[in-house]
Design goal:
Shape: rod-shaped
Largest sheet: 2 strands, antiparallel
Distance between the termini: 79 Å
Number of strands: 4
Number of helices: 1
Strand content: 5-15%
Strand order of the largest sheet: 1-4
Helix content: 10-25%
Structural class: little secondary structure
Order of helices and strands: EEEHE
Amino acid sequence: MAKAAKKRVRPPVAKKAIPLVEVPEQVGIIPDFMLDMIKKDYVVVTAFRSLNDFNKSYNPGDDVSHLDEARLKDLIGLGLAKKNK
């Protein structure tokens, strides 16, 4: 007679609770998943570098609403940024 094969059973795995939202450790940090919720008034169309800090670059889709009005007018005139609808 053939010996019956033993059925292998996996031990139960402890289920961990998965946090739905990671809470930032520092106050004032915006989590990545919330960045799309923020309204961007002015966005970059063509990549460019900052006049004051050449190491700072702005890429298409970046928000430039924090720049002063004169700089925004220059960027729009050069076709580097546009007002977001």
